[in-house]
Amino acid sequence: MTAPAATGFDLLRLPLVGRFFRWRHSRLTLQLPLLALAVLMILHGLFGPDLAPKNFATLLTWVHYRGILVVVLLAAGNFFCAACPLLLPRELIRLFVKPALVWPRALRNKWLAAGLFVAILFVYEYWALYETPAGTAALILGYFVAATVVDSLFAHASFCKWVCPIGQFNFLASALSPLEVRVRDQGVCAGCKTKDCIKGTPAPPDTGRRHALPVVQRGCELALFAPRKVGNFDCTFCMDCVQACPYDNIGVVGRVPGSELYDERSHSGIGEPHRRNDWAALTVAFTFGALVNAFAMVSPGHAFIEWLHGRTGTSSPAGLLGMLFFLALVVEPVVLLGLAALVTKLLTPEKTRPAGHADALRPEPDPDRLRHLAGALLLPLPDRLLHVHPAGAARRGTLPGRAVVATDRRAGTVRPPDRDGPGRPGASRLVPGGVAAGEARRPGQPVARLRVVGRAAPAAGRRRGVGAVAADGDARHLPGGLTIRERSLGGAGAAAPDLPGAPGA
Question: Which of 196, 341, 395, 402 lies 20 to 30 Å from 29, alpha-carbon distance?
């Protein structure tokens, strides 16, 4: 499934705006004023007045920046990441020293960023940064140091993609933005041989001049392949892909805000966000973190902390604040989301399973509708053990007389439900260590997230490259090798090999 050609509003079609963003120095032009402003905030925070309302560090950071950020995200898109000045020091360093390391595979997720976001919230409350100019200036300076160190050591945009808490907030919030960086015509991309949008534009071989870099215009540093990019997740609006595309086939197009929240396609460079617990943790941290951030600064919050002090006898401010954070970021989400899930399950009649997240909003689930609804909200629930799909139909291609099973559970044996009727296959052995890239549906419905590679040839008594991969997935971001086991209706099952290129394969 591919995205339709962009036919509506396109920001880059506007005469002056489009010409500016297609200019290769447009991002630098946006970053330099913000760098100057950041330097002013640091200096004023360290050497200016201690009164917060009169200091640029506290006033601009905790009052104006947060408000303007939300307005821009909801009215346009992630243009703050596009203009982020934190990257300028690393760009200067990379002119002389190229990063030699690759971001560790174990950290290619959002857990570190979610933890850092909670830590910043804790520091914000504990040291009252909203009224401490020097502390706010130190936080801004620390951000610059962290971004410079990480991106000077590790290739690509590792800080933006895996570390920066503000960036992760922008990625999630931009799901509600009305604009999206997207290809205009998938047909043009299908005929493209160079893939400059992801690889970058190489220097011309015979120009009579020497280029300092083998790539004169880099592609997407966040590993988002434009033809398979879905929505705004992990997109910084840097316009590198726009400037690298030799066909001018990428625009900033209008779309329905929030459309990627119910889009079942695998996102390039991300996979399936609704199945990723790290994305769910980010969503919970941002949502409930905002609540506890506001609660801790008002009178009821102070009264509740005093109540905790009286009930527990703890006099340590850090301990009391830690208990408040635990209740707000762990206990409260578990209780509220658990109750919402239970009520949804109790009020939902058992009919047919919906085909996708858009259908999950209709009152017609089977018991698994709950995880579809939670997935649409980026709050995945634990998968059930996947059972054999007797029909063997898949989204692309078919496996006549065979059943495909993938699981991320421990090794075990499962049988199809009794409702599958006579002639159903026997138990299939599940392979440990795999990734749940799919889920079985009722007889006659496709395996939702599996793409068949090759076809079975039962009549000839042999297999011909039968396997499956995550639809449009990026193997680099899967936590383990995907193992598929397929079983004929009458014979013994045989394990297909692990996917080449997948971690652990």
Answer: 196
